[in-house]
## 1
Amino acid sequence: MTKYILKRCVSIIVTLFLVCTITFIMMKAVPGGPFTTEKNLPQNVLDALEAKYHLTDPLWKQYVDYVKGAATFDFGPSFKKDGVMVSDMLAQSFPVSAKLGLVALIIVILLGIPFGILAALKQNKLPDYLATIFATLGIAIPTFVLGTLILYVFGSRLGWIPTHGLDSWKCYIGPSISLAGFSLAYVLRLTRSSMLGVCGQDYIRTARAKGLPERTVIFKHALKNALIPVVTYIGPMTAGIMTGSFVTEKIFAIPGMGKFYVEAINNRDYTVIMGTTMFYAAIAAVMILAVDIAYACLDPRIKFQD
Amino acid sequence: MENTERQITQKDIERVHFTNKESQDITRPSLTYWQDVKRRFLKNKLAILGSVIIILMVLFALFGYLLTSQNYYRQDLTMTNLPPRLECYYLDDETLLYVNSEYSLYTLDNDGTVRERLEPAEENQMMREKTYEVNGQKVVLNYKGAAQAAKARKQGDMQLANSIDTFTLDIGGKTPEMQKVWNKTYRLGTDYLGRDMLARLVYGARISILVALIATFAQFCIGVLYGGVAGYLGGRVDNIMMRIVDIISTVPLTLYVVLLMVVMGPGIKTIIIALGSVYWVDMARQVRGQVLNIKQQEFVLAARTIGASAKRIMLRHLIPNSMSTIIVTLTMNIPSAIFTESFLSFIGLGISAPAASWGTLASDALGGLRSYPYQLLLPSLCICLTVLGFNFLGDGLRDALDPKLRK
Amino acid sequence: MNDTILQVNNLEVSFFTHVGEVRAVRDVTFSVEKGEILGIVGESGSGKSTVLLAIMSLLQHPGKIKAGEILFENEDLAKKSNREMQHIRGRKISMIFQDPMSSLNPVFTVGNQIAETIITHEHVSRSEANKRVLELLELVRIPSAKTRINSYPHEFSGGMRQRAMIALALACSPQMLLADEPTTALDVTIQAQMMDLLRDIRKETNTTIILVTHDLGVVSEMCDRVQVMYGGRLMEEAACRDIFDKPGHPYTKGLLRSIPNVKKGSRERLKPIDGSPPDLITPFDGCPFAFRCPHTMNLCMDSCSREWEIGEMHRCACHLCNPEVKALLDERGNE
């Protein structure tokens, strides 16, 4: 188990290193980017960049400095906003996005899994049909469409929820539902099909043959097996919620990382793009590690692979 | 214990002879694999519905321009934000009047053909009143209500805000009769630059579907090759190749695409390159798994025993037998390509003006969402329907091609 | 018939599928004596496993008991609710399944899965249950049971898993053990060990065993009495020796001809039964074996024979055993 986790950690560090290198190469390749010497920028920004990245140094040294900086969460100054450090921007906006993302994640888990189980247990009955319809539509609606529809209907038309900001709990409703929507539908579908698959397995028949109460059969024997594919989906789901936050935060005007990221993309604020990308990659990697550990706890067979 | 009481006769004990064939053939006739696939697919109503949706969308993209006389890039700043359904007022039998949300007056033919935007003869800013001369009649437009409604909205009282009439129309001292008509010039309305929505949707359909198809094809080529090679060679090479895939997919793939787009700049070509070069990972995994599985089966061993070359084994045995997995993965990847393209366009990294995809149309609509929701709804509907169609088709194909894969 | 533990009367089981009703078990009647090993033989799809599942009320949707009664200790199991059955399953009757690879839950330890049964039925503490599990694992001869108790099923070999399944089934000392092809998925050598184990268990605990198999070798070694099933119906029923020595039903005869005889080094050719198993969807009132039987008469196409007593405790459902038919056939033969 420890060996397995260590292995995963090493692979994640390699990944982050790789992403770091890719961003470096890409930013080198951008005409007018932060690592090219010919550009028209205010002198103070140029000075800050020079102080940070030593653009006159040889390439390999620039690269080493860059990697060192990334390892210590130091991504240098913003390319467009005067005197703002990228790491400060991240430190400010990350908690906002994290809170929202967490609420979405909780919605997905608390609604998706139980309703998926319900649908599987009531197969071909009303709850199942409703859940299936919901899931089918849910995975066909992009996050930005869901977000704008919620904003329009419940925000502008009905006025039930605020249309911007994150000042009260009410503000969380719109953005977190639009963030959760796709994943919720997907998890519902996944839980349902996984549960159905597991319920047809021989060991469930064995559990019934032992005379266990139906409750134990479903919630102990079937559920633990059915959750394995659902848990593996939490990794991709985090990525989905992350990219979903780009549009959701734009739509609901929430001062989170996603909004800054999109702004940076539109302004071509290269250092912010680089730093935020690295940060996102790190979060995703850590989530995948967490999922791997949870997976190993659920499925004893995993320890014997690799 | 049926019929025990019956008298048994000589006829009863007469021997019955079956030919050998009869006793062999009492089971139902068997179907070939593809016949069976076809039967299962055609029986799946949702899969048929999905195919119909996709065909309709493709027809719309190809021939939709026949439905409108406008083109997708011509701007007409006097014709901005006209909805598909207009609330009009009768001026006389021939002429309708329409007031847009900026309180400009338009004249229309009574069949819904938009004539022109009128210039007020007189405007009183204080009283919020515009006076027009139309066909010799005096029309007074008062939009005092708008300010009250805006105030109510600001205070959060949506019910009040929605109940206030934002303007009143007065023709020769009388309030005219209201009549809803369909917009005949711009059947689906116009956008914020006065461009025809229908023409832009058709254009968007072309771009979105084209981008999705080409990008998926690129994923297909890279993924099948990569996964095929890894699965075929196996062992160390496979291990290293799959480690690379693992490392790539640790980071959300969208981030790579965003980075690529930032470096290469927006545009159709770059979006196709970015999508095609990043999203092959899933395909590679699927194909590798399938190839590994097939490789161990006897017929491949047999081919190898009789000295078939690696290329031949790959082309004749491994690829054809992985086809069902490939087709299903391919169909399932198209919706995600459509999603990603529209997502990129929505955050400003996709198709640049005047070209448009469904994503850019939705993004453009965001500013005027409150007043012109149709500008968002139409492209969104197109995206959702297409994705739904491909999802249905993918599910149907999966169930039809491999019943064991059924989820 | 003084010590009958199970009496099945006119059992009918059907699967209501989308292509139609599949009549898996038709009009099956039999009884089981306390402490005996009853073998049920038949090919795949003959309904033998379905009978066991029906006894346990474990038929899965769309399967249903359509008619008949299953009397266990004078109570009809077919009429019991699921909740009532829970107290019987695992405690009074337990079942061993065919594939030990998939019959144990992969995410729980073997010890946990066995202890769970004991705790559910006997409300003992976990440590008490664990002590019992250890004894059980030793009873089924799992080596180093102390460490194995905390192993997961995937760490066991096939034979070991089946031993664990048997331990699981014996956990609450049931009166009756239903074994559904317990050796089919195992190697031949392991099969023999498993059979020894089951025989010893019967000797030690006097548990009644119903053994479903398609392996006549297993039957001849293990069983006191044998029933032959075909196409959902009971064809013949006799003491084990009688089935092999004087089979009454043409199907039984066919079955016996199709097993190799190694003993005498005989060079006799094996005779397979022509044709394939019956299609249970198409309604057919005649004998299910009629299409493959070498003696089919018009009568066989119209109706299925009742069971005729053809020896001591030897019953056979074939029109050829009907004295009237016999008489008529003799008459014809004499002509």
## 2
Amino acid sequence: MISMDILQMAFYLLLLILLAIPLGFYMARVFNGESTFLDPIFRPLERLIYRLTGVDAGREMNWREYALMLVVFNILGMAAVYLIQRIQGILPFNPQHFGAVPPDLAFNTAASFMTNTNWQAYGGESTMSYFTQMTVLTVQNFLSAATGMTVAIALTRGLARRSARTIGNFWVDLTRSILWVLLPLSLVLALILVSQGAIQNLNPYLTITTLEGDRQTLAMGPVASQEAIKLLGTNGGGFFNANSSHPFENPTPLTNLLEMLTILIIPAGLTITFGQMVGNRRQGLVILAAMLLLFVFALGVVYASEHYGNPKLGALGMRGPTAMEGKEVRFGIVNSSLFATITTAASCGAVNTMHDSLTPLGGLIPMLQMMLGEVVFGGVGSGLYGMLVFVIITVFIIGLMVGRTPEYLGKKIEAWEVKMAILAVLIPAATILLGSALAAVTKTGTSSILNPGPHGLSEILYAFASGAGNNGSAFAGLNANTPFYNIALGLAMLIGRFGVILPVLSIAGSTAGKKVVPPGPGTFQTTSLLFTGLLAAVVLIVGALTFFPALALGPLVEQLLMLAGKTF
Amino acid sequence: MTRRVLTGVVMLIVMTGLTGIIYPLTITGLARVLFPYQANGSLIYRQGQTVGSALIGQRFTSPRYFHGRPSAAGKDGYDATSSGGSNLGPTNKELVATIAQRLARVQAENGLPDGTPVPADLVTTSASGLDPDISPAAAYLQVPRVARARNLPEETVRALVDRNIIGRQFGILGEPRVNVLKLDLELDQLSHSAR
């Protein structure tokens, strides 16, 4: 039923925009330190946290100190994740008596959750104790999302301020994003998820006798609380191996809608926050429009490809949609396509369908969205700052075309900003291509492949795009739990995260110190629909130029071969 | 620098307490009070015995029961401690061969002539391997077989399927479906009262 499908997609987009706009205004108040309706609860708690930690909330930081605090805090977080996994065997809340996680896997998981990637080389229900899931994995879901928000807000301040030396206080931005944004939204979402059937308990696994007399053991756990922040923080690390396709994580079409909304609500809302904080709402709206434009295009391709399906399977004598391998009945083609597009537009990586089994074009788009740098909405914070990097590149290109020094928000964009922006684009891109190349030419790399033929290359490309893009979804046929992939992908995640954050913070510091020049007759307006189009085009062109050859050898050729009825 | 690291350590501890202990335990407590049935896994009891979760699919092989989808969870399928899909790609020979086999089996089990089209969900594995549902078409296809195996009139069984169709949520969300375990439980009840 194509009409019902289109209706559901339109309904989703409408709800997303309706919810993101007020949230965006609210977040601007939060990060400007203005009063909000949650102040009576959280102001005292905030003061208590600063007292305990010795943070001087009134003292602002320059970009170097801001970046240093961020890096220190993230290293500590990563160390905690590693440590707890290694000693979970002697810790409480471990009813299944899971032992220590092996070092390479523990490193990979620690890098993965700290960088907001949430790539999982393990199966949750067969590896991690409840203690590990709650006290380090859930915690990093909050902290990595908050880290992303701090960087986006710091960059926003850097662009908004005039002749300033500081870009905010890292600890304050971190605390406020958790208390005022992530925690309250997670509480509400988690309870709605439970009401629909997501589980939330600390019981041991339950063995039952089925109707036909088989034994079936049901994995249990504190799922809903982790599920909520997993989506809201664009983390994506599932409690269970099957992630958001697992009925205990995502039981009904309603929970599916809410999960899809919460993935994009903060990234979309932050564009509004940006406009508000730089004092010109249209500046935020043009960015939101560019993201929407790219998103609708991506969704269209994925949906069309999945709907069309796999003619080879249809010829066998199947009725209805042929691309149901790896999809759940309650979600069907449309909600699986929608989720796959959303989760890779954002750097979320939660999945409600198995991406490895998507049609080749249906799998190409998720891969491409990650390769574009996760800027189609993108991750919490990282989407906005990633897109602002492309804004800088766009105004630079426009400047070249008209022969003027590029400006953005009245700030002259000079060599330093452009160099840093290029670094932020090149570092993840190089990581994806070099990493994939290394894996594709070594026996250790190729021996993990499940699906032969061009699809095997797609599995490798997808893994490195997902790692360096900090997405975390997978073509999960690839056996990534090997020392080679655990370490290579762990490094890719770290490079992809900090190889963008550090240049971005340095741009923030540099633009904060600049004077604002009043717009003249030759100033290119960045509030027009023309700019939206140019921005979206630059994102696509940069991505296509970088990745087209690789994609041609993987999903593109596979689509053609599939249509020709070839199998491997 | 030491002071800064110390701030970081204390911040990490405070945030772990807040988001890693207080937050999940608060949700656990609230869930237990507000939604105890759901929080514990939507378990279904029959004569005092737990027979499964309404949300987790089970393996059915007997002709007397409606069957769910093929499952790639664990070695034999429907292993709820090892959720996951087959991850077979669209051009994988194995995918095509397995689906062809399943088609033949479904046709044979249901006494359908070769070449009868079969709903896709009955011959493909789900994403979780634990999909509790099948499409209404997949349920209707099994009605004659189940009715024969249970000596029930086809109309009675068909009416049971009709009653068990879960429509789109709020009329627009998701896809229409049938929960296999619930359908089979009602089927047992029906046979029981017919006797």
